[in-house]
């Protein structure tokens, strides 16, 4: 059974870079039929797509975050990662990783990790 | 401001049927399939309906989806207390080259 697990610091200082990793188990990140994505949810608010990556390294970013986001993949570790630079309090959210199929369906989600931006 | 529009809340008594609407545009719902996600309190979203009206394995047939033009809806029949959750619609957006979401609808079982 496919599982995704986010990991990384739960507290980041303003202006610094948020870094998270998603570890995929029970399946290969090198699937030709899927992308791997990051989604966030500020406390009490809705979902926002951050970006996606294919195992080959091809990336797609939300234009609203594109200047600050980098998503990378490590197929040898079955992991993909998110870096969000110059964070502010507005970036405080639960960050989810998910598997994305070719229709854009997020069919498997990680449990999510809360990242708080505060000094 | 979410790209897709949903009512913020919905409610119904146990056993009743409720519907949740989702409105978009030609670049998302109008040209791509719609998915629905259920988010129980304190948990991650879970895929509930995909490709407009398909249920993943394990999702009861009380849940159904439909799409027409640039709008979609989720229907829940035989409402149960465990259906209390937030429901999000989503669709691929050709302009964004990624998925867009509705703002979510909080379902209360009276």
Structure overview:
The complex is a heterodimer of chains A (119) and B (110). Chain A has no helices and eleven strands. Chain A is mostly beta strands and 119 residues long. In chain A, a hairpin with a 5-residue loop joins β5 and β6. With 110 residues, chain B is an all-beta fold. Helices cover 0% and strands 45% of the residues of chain B. In chain B, strands 1, 3, 4, 7, 8 and 9 form a six-stranded mixed beta sheet that branches. Chains A and B meet through β5 and β10 of A and β7 and β8 of B.
Brief overview, please?
The complex is a heterodimer of chains A (119) and B (110). The radius of gyration of chain A is 13 Å and the shape is globular.
Q: Could you say which overall geometry of chain A the principal axes of the C-alpha atoms support?
A: globular
What is the mean pLDDT of chain A?
Answer: 96
Q: What pattern of helices and strands is seen along the backbone of chain B?
A: EEEEEEEEE
Q: Please give the radius of gyration of chain A in angstroms.
A: 13 Å
Give the distance, in angstroms, between the N- and C-terminal Cα atoms of chain B.
28 Å
Q: What composes the largest sheet of chain B?
A: 6 strands, mixed
* Number of beta-strand segments of chain A: 11
Ends of chain A: how far apart?
39 Å
Query: Biggest sheet of chain A: strands, sense, closure?
Result: 7 strands, mixed
Keyphrases for this structure?
heterodimer; A: 119 residues; mainly beta; 7-stranded mixed sheet; 4-stranded antiparallel sheet; 11 strands; B: 110 residues; 6-stranded mixed sheet; 3-stranded antiparallel sheet; 9 strands; globular
What is the secondary structure topology, with strand pairs?
The complex is a heterodimer of chains A (119) and B (110).
Chain A: E1 3-7, E2 11-12, E3 18-25, E4 34-41, E5 48-53, E6 59-61, E7 69-74, E8 79-84, E9 93-101, E10 106-109, E11 113-117
Parallel strand pairs in A: 2-11
Antiparallel strand pairs in A: 1-3, 3-8, 4-5, 4-9, 5-6, 7-8, 9-10, 9-11
Chain B: E1 9-12, E2 18-23, E3 34-39, E4 46-49, E5 63-68, E6 71-76, E7 85-93, E8 98-101, E9 105-109
Parallel strand pairs in B: 1-9
Antiparallel strand pairs in B: 2-6, 3-4, 3-7, 5-6, 7-8, 7-9
